[in-house]
Amino acid sequence: MPTEDRPTGSPSSSAAATPEAEPSRTGGVKEVDTEATGAISLLGNGSIVVDTGKGVREAKLTGDTIVLDVQGSVCDQGAIPHRCTSAQLSKALKAGVSFEGKVLIADGVAVKVEEIVKEDSAASDG
């Protein structure tokens, strides 16, 4: 009788893309199953929503969530990118800060939120 129920070498839906692994502040490694890029807003109850332009993704913020801020709109301590807390991100989003970013999500939890600065043609006065 076989003692192992797991098939070996079976294809999975994520076989084409190698999932990233992000270290957690508590020492564990979480496998990233979703990456969403777009406008980030606060949903409430400690969660954020990423509007990708093709839909929205929800992710819960935790004390382990890594927040990297390039422009200093969330926090401005240390070298760029500034390493902020999820509480600082929540506070900034509540205050109306516009934040575009890439969010790595593992099991519905935001593992990393990294600000992306899009080049704006209106920003160059010429």
Description:
This protein is mainly beta. It has one domain. The protein has a 7-stranded mixed β-sheet with strand order 5-4-3-8-9-6-7. The chain has a two-stranded antiparallel ribbon with strand order 1-2. The protein is globular and about 30 Å long.
Summarize the structure.
With 126 residues, this protein is mostly beta strands. 7% of the residues lie in helices and 39% in strands.
How is the topology of this model organized?
Elements: E1 21-23, E2 29-31, E3 34-44, E4 47-51, E5 56-60, E6 66-69, E7 82-84, H1 86-94, E8 99-106, E9 109-115
Parallel strand pairs: 6-9
Antiparallel strand pairs: 1-2, 3-4, 3-8, 4-5, 6-7, 8-9
